[in-house]
Structure formats: structure tokens, C-alpha cells
Specification:
The chain has 621 residues and is of the alpha/beta class. It folds into 2 domains: 14-193 and 228-407, no CATH class; 431-584, 3-Layer(bba) Sandwich (Glucose Oxidase, domain 1). It has helices spanning 14-26, 28-40, 53-60, 65-73, 98-108, 124-127, 136-151, 168-176, 198-209, 215-225, 237-247, 263-279, 289-292, 295-307, 314-323, 331-338, 355-361, 363-373, 465-473, 490-493, 501-510, 570-575, 600-605, and strands at 78-83, 112-118, 158-162, 184-187, 382-383, 386-387, 394-399, 402-407, 431-436, 439-444, 454-462, 481-485, 515-519, 532-537, 554-558, 563-566.
């Protein structure tokens, strides 16, 4: 591979240093315990060395004789592949043939590779507004558990994680960190080519919500937008995942947004295998993923999320991912970094472009160079290429059929999509912390026009997003209001995304009404132009004041000052009985179906939203 570029001498931004040090101090005990666990699992030679003969025979029984010979010699690494392949998710369909390609690339280097295990991968785009969406958030933790099961056989010297979408990458990341003694590379599959523009698609959705077009027109629009293999092209959680893996140094440089089925995509996959083989050589042990993913790397991920206007879902996922490595971050860290990190990208829903346009304008290499040169990324971190992040300012290309890297262009190819740090779209990252007598919530304002960022209006209370749609169709919402949608937190029903609210609230805002959303649930990773105070904590089922809001109460949601206030005095609020609708004493509503009942243990043990909403680390940290 091309050697990394020379390191920068730019001083780091003082706020970046201050917040990183605060996280380090906050995490000292948990990080030390995590690293002790990682180091206790390390071995000097091949991890299969010394296994019992029956164990070895079971592990490699189905492998070709030539592979068995290599494995028995214990001189070359064996790679474990954890795959989230299924052919229902467009983003994951390209992974069908990755295992055979990975095995061939490993054999060409004298090594071996096996599919260690598969993990589930559900699509939020399919389950939005449906019962299955209540399994979505906790599928992340199931994936973490499944990743741990896959790697538990302890016959691997390095691992490759194949995953793209919303909960899949965070789950793979969390599970792989429990085997942090291993070097781990995340292998992307790339976005689908551009179809119907995201803006045009959104307009048809709004027209359908108003009854102006029928289901046939809506379906035609959606199928023109989601039309082939690869990640959906808007900048939601899936593509935010890809950005994170690259800016954290866990993807090969420039590999996140190369389309599937192309020669460059195949070459990058082969190169990932080559790197994994190099890192997994017995006797030359790499420090492993657990040591790479330190406080600086987590902060780099935060910066990337803010600089690109990434998914609000990562105010949950990135918290849980960090905790899996013993690192404790909270929404203060997000908000304070947001105040000093400029917004450098506008990709739908924060703009008209999609991720293919972002990639063509300069992509991740341009973004990371600008952030490094502005002192807004920690450059001296460990990565899958070794020390230093400067190599990620280069882009891959095929030079006569051979994979190579070159410097990204000095100038953005489209200033409407990607800008230099000296000419940002806004001076801050657009993610704000809201707090007041209702608790703490987050709001993403990068797509919210300044005129809509302050809403003071009466509350209309719902316990289901479908209730709001019914009242809209009945003509009852032609007014200013703040939609309070409660009992949507992780303990209540698994914290489903409330994406179905977006078209309705967008229509009302376009009609001139002052509207906003307040919820202990989630919005889509593509949350957009309507101010939405989400992830409110504590949630209604955990004693949160949101359970005491009554219809008609005045609520102030001020994205500029960070104020979230219910205009009811403390004594009156305390005297009210919480209004909860869906919880018998045993926490098992009779209406559970579509698999929701099997997640009761997860709901009962979920951490609060600001702690990542994970049942895997509810109290350890």
C-alpha cells in the first residue's frame, strides 16, 4: 500500500483537547479494566496453537486439504469473517460472494479464512411504522452477542466484519471489542448508484400524506429511489456508520462510498484481506482493536459525525460503542464539540445531494484532510494501517488495474456539497443538547431553518405515531402545537424510530404552523427540517416528567438557547399522576407479537438513552 503522508504539525483545537481529557479522566477506571481484559487474552503465537486435537478437527473439518495443511503448521494466520449478509437488505446483498473472495485472497498469501458466523441484519426502511420496528434498536445488541459467539471459538488471528446498516455496524463494533486482542477490519460494500433524488422522493411522501397522490405514485417514487444493490444514498445512520469506520481508521482509506460490483470495490476488498493477513501474523502481534479504539478515536468519531451532519441515532450508538471499550461519553461531549466543529458537508436531509455526490466532490479524504489541517482530529492514533491518520487524506484508484492511493484534490468539486474548513456551511455541527424541567434531549438543527428553531406552543399528547396521523387526516392539527409522543423509550417498547411523523409535521410546517416534536423515542437517522427534541431522558416509563404532560400545557423548545421547558409549576407537576397506557405490572403487554415478546428482558434491563440504551452494559459503567 501507499505509505502514509507526512504527519501534520497543526496544533489541536483547545476544545478538542479539553473534552478528550475530560473523557479520559471520566473513563479511567472502566478503560483500565477493559484493557486488562484485552491483554489477558493475548497470545504470542497462533491462537489455535495448543488446541486439543478433537477441537482442531472440529474447527477445520470442512476445509480443503490444502487449507488444513496450512492450519496444522500454525505459521500463517487464520482470518475469521463475521458477516451480516442477507439478500433482503440492498446494502448487504453484495456480501453474498465476499466469503469466497476473501478465502481466495487469503490463500494467495498463504493464509486461510473462515466465516466465523453470521449476525442478523434488519432494515429500518422496511419496518418503519410497523410492529417490527420495536425490535430494531435491540437488534444492535443481538448483533453484538452474535459477534461474540462467532469469535468465541478462538481459532482466529484477525477478523473481518462485513456490515453496513443502522444497527449492524454498531453491533459488530461492540461485539468485536470483546475480542479486542485481535486486529479487526471493517469491510464496506458501498452505496447504490443514484436514483430518484431524495428531495423529489420527500416531496412525493408529503403529497401522499396530504392525499394529493395515491399509493401507486408513492410506490413508483420509492422504487425509483431505492432501486438496486448498495446502501440507500441519503445520509442516514447507515452511511453515518461508514463515515465513522473510516474516520476511526477501521476502513481502508476512501473505501466507504465506492459503489458495489465495481473493479475498485473488489480491489479494496482484496486489500482489506491483505492487511488483515499482515496484522495477524503469529509472532508479530498487532496491538489489536481494543487498544486502537481509545478516547482520541472516539472523539474523532464524534467530530466526523458533527462535521457531516450525521445521524442522531449515534447519540445512542456511539455512546454504546464507546462503553464497549470502557470509554464513557455523554451528550455534553456531543454538544460542546458541536459548538466548535464546523459543518463541512450537506448531504440529504441536510442538503440536496446524496452520498455519491459527496464522494465525487472529494469525499472522506477531503473531509479528513480539512479537519486534520484545522486541528480538529487527533492524528496520532493507531489504525489498521499503523500509527497516524494522515493516510486517510488519500483516495483509492486503479492504476493500470493495480490498486493505488493518491492525494485528494485540493479543491472541492462541488461547494454546495462539501466545503473546506475555512468556508463551512455553518460554524457549528448542528447538534444541540436541550435541557430543563422535562429532562435532557438532543436535537439536530443542521437541516432546520433558523426561523423554525424556537417553538412555544401547546402540547398535543400521543402514545403512538399512528394517533397523530389519524388526527392529521381528520383535520384536527391545523394549528401551532408541539407533538408529545411518549412511551417510546427503550424500556417502554424498544425505542422505535418515529419516521412516519416526518411527512405530516413537514406538511404542517410548510403551511405556516409552528410545530415541533418532543419524544422519549427516536427519529430516523434522516431526521430533517422540523425541530425534534428526541431521546428525552428519563423516559416516561422510567419516571420521566414527560408522563405528566397534559394536552394544552405550554411547552418551550428553543434550539438556540438549549431550553426545554414545560410551563407548569413544580408543585402542580409533582401532584399529577403519570399517564401511562401500555404497561401491566409485569411489563408484558398482552398485545405483543411479531417477536416483541422475546425482547422483554432487553427492555427491562436497558440503560437510559444517554447511556446508550443498551441492556448489555446497564450498570457496569
Amino acid at each position: 500500500m501507499t505509505p502514509p503522508a507526512s504527519p501534520s504539525t497543526v496544533p489541536l483545537h483547545p476544545e478538542l483537547l479539553r473534552i478528550t481529557e475530560r473523557i479520559r479522566q471520566r473513563s479511567a477506571a472502566t478503560r483500565q479494566a477493559y484493557l486488562a481484559m484485552v491483554d489477558s487474552a493475548r497470545r504470542p503465537g497462533a491462537y489455535r496453537a495448543g488446541m486439543g486435537c478433537a477441537n482442531m478437527a472440529h474447527a477445520f473439518a470442512a476445509m480443503p486439504a490444502s487449507d488444513k495443511l496450512v492450519l496444522n503448521q500454525e505459521r500463517q494466520p487464520n482470518l475469521g469473517v463475521v458477516t451480516a449478509y442477507n439478500d433482503m437488505l440492498s446494502a448487504h446483498q453484495p456480501y453474498e460472494h465476499y466469503p469466497e473472495r476473501i478465502r481466495a485472497a487469503a490463500r494467495a498469501l498463504g493464509a486461510t479464512a473462515q466465516v466465523a458466523g453470521g449476525v442478523p441484519a434488519m432494515c429500518d426502511g422496511i419496518t418503519q411504522g410497523e410492529d417490527g420496528m420495536e425490535l430494531s434498536l435491540f437488534s444492535r445488541d443481538v448483533i453484538a452477542l452474535a459477534t461474540a459467539v462467532a469469535l468465541s471459538h478462538n481459532v482466529f488471528d484477525a477478523a473481518l466484519c462485513l456490515g453496513v446498516c443502522d444497527k449492524i455496524v454498531p453491533g459488530l463494533f461492540m461485539g468485536a471489542l470483546q475480542f479486542g486482542h485481535l486486529p479487526v477490519i471493517f469491510v464496506p460494500a458501498g452505496p447504490m448508484t443514484s436514483g430518484l433524488s431524495n428531495d423529489a422522493k420527500a416531496k412525493v411522501r408529503q403529497e401522499y400524506a396530504q392525499g394529493k397522490v395515491g399509493r401507486e405514485a408513492l410506490l413508483a417514487s420509492e422504487q425509483a429511489a431505492y432501486h438496486g444493490a448498495g446502501t440507500c444514498t441519503f445520509y442516514g445512520t447507515a452511511n453515518s456508520n461508514q463515515m465513522l469506520m473510516e474516520i476511526m481508521g477501521l476502513h481502508l482509506p476512501g473505501s466507504s462510498f465506492v459503489n458495489p460490483g465495481t473493479p475498485l470495490r473488489d480491489a479494496l476488498t482484496d486489500a482489506a484481506v491483505q492487511r488483515a493477513v499482515a496484522m495477524g501474523q503469529p509472532g508479530q502481534k498487532h496491538s489489536g482493536m481494543g487498544h486502537w479504539v481509545n478516547e482520541q478515536v472516539i472523539v474523532n468519531g464524534l467530530v466526523g459525525l458533527l462535521a457531516t451532519g450525521g445521524s442522531t441515532n449515534h447519540t445512542l450508538h456511539l455512546v454504546a460503542m464507546a462503553r464497549a471499550a470502557g470509554i464513557l461519553i455523554d451528550w455534553d461531549d456531543f454538544a460542546e464539540l458541536s459548538a466548535c466543529v464546523p459543518l463541512l458537508a450537506r448531504v440529504y436531509p441536510n442538503g440536496q445531494a446524496d452520498v455519491n455526490h459527496f464522494h465525487a466532490a472529494g469525499g472522506m479524504g477531503f473531509l479528513m484532510r480539512e479537519l486534520l489541517d484545522a486541528g480538529l482530529l487527533h492524528e496520532d492514533v493507531d489504525t489498521i494501517l499503523g500509527p497516524g491518520l494522515r493516510a486517510w487524506t488519500r483516495e483509492p484508484w486503479l492504476d493500470g488495474g493495480r490498486l493505488a492511493w493518491r492525494d485528494v484534490p485540493a479543491v472541492s468539486a462541488d461547494l454546495d456539497v462539501l466545503r473546506p474548513a475555512a468556508q463551512p456551511f455553518s460554524a457549528d455541527g448542528g447538534l444541540r443538547l436541550l435541557q430543563g424541567n422535562l429532562g435532557r434531549a438532543v436535537v439536530k438543527v443542521s437541516a432546520v431553518k433558523p426561523a423554525h428553531r424556537v417553538v412555544r406552543a401547546p402540547a398535543l399528547v400521543f402514545t403512538d405515531q399512528k394517533q397523530l396521523d389519524v388526527r392529521f387526516k381528520a383535520g384536527e392539527l391545523e394549528r401551532d402545537f408541539i407533538a408529545v409522543v411518549r412511551e417510546q423509550g427503550p424500556r417502554a417498547n424498544g425505542m422505535p424510530e418515529l419516521h412516519k411523523l416526518t411527512p405530516v409535521l413537514g406538511v404542517l410546517q410548510d403551511r405556516g404552523f409552528h410545530v415541533a416534536l418532543l419524544t422519549d423515542g427516536r427519529m430516523s437517522g434522516a431526521s430533517g427540517k422540523v425541530p425534534a427534541a428526541i431521546h428525552l431522558s428519563p423516559e416516561a416509563l422510567d419516571g420521566g416528567p414527560i408522563a405528566r404532560i397534559e394536552e394544552g400545557d405550554m411547552v418551550t423548545l428553543n434550539c438556540d438557547t438549549g431550553e426545554l421547558r414545560l410551563e407548569v409549576d413544580d408543585a402542580t407537576l409533582a401532584a399529577r399522576t403519570p399517564r401511562l397506557s401500555a404497561a401491566p405490572a409485569d411489563g408484558q403487554p398482552a398485545w405483543l407479537h411479531h417477536g416483541r415478546q422475546v425482547f422483554a428482558l432487553f427492555r427491562q434491563n436497558a440503560a437510559p438513552a444517554e447511556q446508550g440504551a443498551s441492556p448489555l452494559w446497564p450498570a457496569r459503567h
